[in-house]
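Incident review: delayed structure delivery

Summary: a single-chain prediction request sat in the queue longer than the usual turnaround. Root cause was a stuck worker, restarted by the on-call engineer. No data loss occurred. The affected request and its eventual output are reproduced below so the record is complete for anyone auditing the incident later.

Affected input:
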Amino acid sequence: MQATVEWTGEASFLAEAGSGHSVQMDGPPDHGGQNKGPRPMEMLLMGIGGCASFDVMSILQKGRQQVQGCRCELAAERADAVPSVFTKIRMRFVVSGTDLKESQVRRAVSLSAEKYCSASIMLERAGVEISHEYEIVEPG
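Output delivered after worker restart:
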């Protein structure tokens, strides 16, 4: 896996993944940014959510669950001192579908947390406290 990050002025950077996709990142205005894109730590948090969501959906689809929606809501706390690392991350999956089995949703979230999500497992091993929750809702 490869990526490049190129400074584009002020506190703004263009990140390009080896797959060819790119995203503009920017710092907060009080640090010279112009709000042109997400902050780098926001990108990290979104990446964790994307990694885990990919796992959960893959497991549910392989389990032949008729999922119509899956949203991962993330909330993170950071250290007050520099470096302002993540100290806690709460991941809440809201899954909707037809005749979803609660046991399969619980299993998918657990497997992602304990076995498959490289991003969250890496951060957990570095000391970040990560919690995983789920809720099943009616499609709407």
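Verification: The mean pLDDT is 97.
Action items: add queue-age alerting; document worker restart procedure.
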